[in-house]
Design brief:
single chain, about 450 residues, alpha/beta, 2 domains, four-stranded antiparallel sheet, 17 strands
Length: about 450
């Protein structure tokens, strides 16, 4: 039985094709057909009930201004175009294509000898662009790549972002330099860095050998200790691959809880088939967002429940999940996100749907601010010196807070243009466009990018 018709692309030729979510044998699949290259079916959820339970209306508020007019239609006019429905929460800026690892899995297909990177002046131009198109609360910034720490001027890039008024600056990193260079975490912290998103696939070196081509457990642990000393909060980011490390979800959570003073959460990323990945990865054995949620409950013996996990309020409900917790005196964890969940009005003050116009009233701006502030506040560590009254209360909350999140990135098999149009995590290209992260990194079956290669060398 077919449901929820939409559009997608052919994973061979990138042609736009009809697509639909299909219920079959108690599971949910995403299916499409290219007249030239055949039919494709991809698992979305092993349980239709899980999918139905998850569905919910989300709020969409359009960007302050479109940067492109529609010519060919989604997904070919990203910039964003005038039909994009959701302003960004987080914007990624690739500060380098170079990397100090040679991973078997890499969405950017980074290599160690690629010195293609923007100058400080070009990065400043990117910041200025974002300042101009931000609403009243500026975008959250994620510095990415490649591996950003290969740039010795990374602290200057962070300082510049703060000087431009960006309240939240996050580093997406493999953690190698932080772990191997004493004092480097302190330099990043003093530059104004707010959080480290650190690649953390396993507590077993054999997994790193398979996914990252080297043993990294000790380096990851040293990086975590150096961040602890620098009071620099960390979110662990496991790429989950079925049959390789999907059985370690629980052990990674337990490890994080033992380090809750510095590890403020885990951001699970079930592997997506874009960029560089081994030929041995079989899409028929795909590990889904719903698999992740179910395994969290199973592998923690019910300490964290699937009912705790919520879809985001803005964007698209199939993109990610989140849950926040507070550690109690008895060592248990109280889910605080379900207690705090809000329902925003879908309408502006003139009773027009807020997804049909650019931000037009204070209510819309408040939703945007809350969306971005959630990211700003959820990774914070306790601060030294606050021992009185409300500050002491905040410190206790931060010291005992913990977040579980996950994101199911789309690839050429799962790309749904309705999800693309509602994307809230976007990449800023060298030619000045904002493109949904998944779409920016989409590759065909031969590894050719739809967008990344066409923008990274332009200024």
């Amino acid at each position: 039985m077919k449901q929820s018709g939409t559009f997608s692309i052919c994973p061979v030729c990138f042609k736009k094709v009809d697509a639909a979510y299909v219920h079959r044998n108690e599971a949910l699949y995403f299916e499409k057909e290219c007249t030239e290259h055949g039919t494709y079916s991809c698992l979305i959820s092993r349980s239709v009930d899980d999918f139905e339970y998850w569905k919910k209306e989300t709020i969409n508020i359009k960007p302050k201004e479109p940067l492109l007019q529609v010519e060919y239609g989604c997904p070919y006019d990203c910039g964003p175009c005038e039909n994009h429905l959701q302003t960004a929460c987080c914007v990624l800026i690739d500060v380098t294509s170079n990397c100090n690892q040679d991973c078997a899995v890499c969405f950017a297909s980074s290599v160690s000898n690629d010195l293609n990177e923007p100058t400080l002046q070009e990065i400043e131009m990117k910041y200025n662009k974002l300042v101009c198109i931000s609403e009243s609360r500026k975008f959250n910034i994620q510095l990415s790549g490649g591996e950003p720490t290969v740039r010795d001027d990374l602290p200057e890039i962070i300082i510049m972002a703060k000087a431009k008024g960006f309240e939240y600056v996050q580093l997406n990193t493999n953690g190698k330099r932080i772990g191997m260079e004493d004092g480097y975490a302190n330099v990043l912290k003093s530059s104004g860095l707010d959080a480290v998103f650190m690649q953390f696939d396993s507590l077993d070196d054999s997994v790193y050998k398979e996914l990252r081509n080297e043993r990294l457990v000790d380096i990851k642990k040293r990086a975590l200790e150096n961040c602890r000393k620098a009071k620099l909060p960390v979110a662990l980011v496991p790429t989950i691959v079925k049959g390789i490390n999907d059985s370690e979800i629980g052990s990674i959570i337990i490890y994080a809880l033992k380090n809750i003073d510095v590890v403020k959460g885990i951001h699970f990323q079930p592997v997506s088939f874009f960029g560089r990945y081994p030929d041995s990865f079989d899409d028929s054995n795909r590990f889904t967002m719903f698999d992740t949620i179910n395994e969290i409950q199973l592998q923690t013996d019910g300490m964290f429940l699937k009912e705790d996990m919520l879809p985001i309020s803005t964007g698209h409900n199939l993109c990610c999940f989140y849950a926040t917790y507070s550690r109690q005196e008895d060592g248990s964890y109280l889910c605080t996100s379900s207690m705090k969940s809000k329902t925003y009005s879908n309408y502006c003050c003139d009773d027009e749907p807020s997804c049909s116009e650019a931000p037009c009233c204070p209510a819309d701006i408040e939703i945007i601010k809350n969306d971005r502030d959630y990211v700003l506040t959820k990774w914070k560590m306790a601060e030294a010196g606050n021992s009185d009254g409300f500050d002491e209360f905040l410190n206790r909350m931060r010291e005992n807070s913990f977040t579980l999140t996950g994101m199911a990135f789309q690839d050429a098999l799962t790309l749904d243009t309705e999800r693309v149009r509602r994307c809230r995590v976007q990449s800023l290209t060298n030619d000045g466009r904002l493109i949904p992260f998944c779409l920016y990194n989409i590759t065909d079956f031969d590894g050719n990018y739809l967008y990344r290669d066409k923008t990274e060398n332009q200024t």
